[in-house]
Design a protein that fits this description.
single chain, about 160 residues, alpha/beta, five-stranded mixed β-sheet, globular
Length: about 160
């Protein structure tokens, strides 16, 4: 589906608002938010929970069943590529057949750094990065590691 710039920013703003709900419980993980959109309507929302629990994408995906080929995900940080305490969000989006992904930021974590984006693209899923990037950097910058943000994850 084609969205206007105003619509794109509206949905990413909603994802940023979801991410803010994650604090402080998500620590030491970054406060990521996600909204899933079908036919210009938000159909699911998610944010990062405490370590070992749902990431934003997984929380949103858990709220809907069926095909997602006509669904667009708006996430404030690149979906994770690796399986840590929880499975890879990028792989979960691929498995569910998401139609398109907009990510505000590339995750500077050494295990990601674009790998989540590549997983999505390799599966044929269109991905755009950089929507409301500055706002996402303001929200998450101090919670991200090993990136241009010069952050300390334990900072509160």
């Amino acid at each position: 589906m084609t969205y206007s710039q105003t619509e794109l920013e509206h949905f990413m703003t909603a994802a940023l608002a979801e991410g803010r709900k994650a604090l402080p419980a998500c620590f030491p993980n970054p406060p990521v938010g996600c909204v899933l959109v079908r036919e210009r309507e938000i159909i699911a929302r998610g944010y990062t929970h405490p370590p070992g629990q749902f990431h934003a994408e997984a929380m949103a995906l858990s709220q809907i069943a069926g095909s997602l080929k006509d669904v667009t995900a708006f996430v404030t940080l690149e979906p994770c590529a690796f399986h840590g305490r929880t499975p890879s969000c990028a792989r979960a989006l691929v498995q569910r057949g998401i139609g398109e992904v907009f990510a505000a930021l590339i995750d500077p974590h050494p295990k990601n750094r674009g790998r989540g984006i590549h997983i999505l693209q390799d599966a044929g899923i269109p991905v755009r990065v950089g929507l409301l990037q500055e706002e996402a950097e303001r929200d998450m910058g101090r919670y991200l590691i090993n990136g241009k943000f010069n952050t300390i994850r334990r900072q509160k």
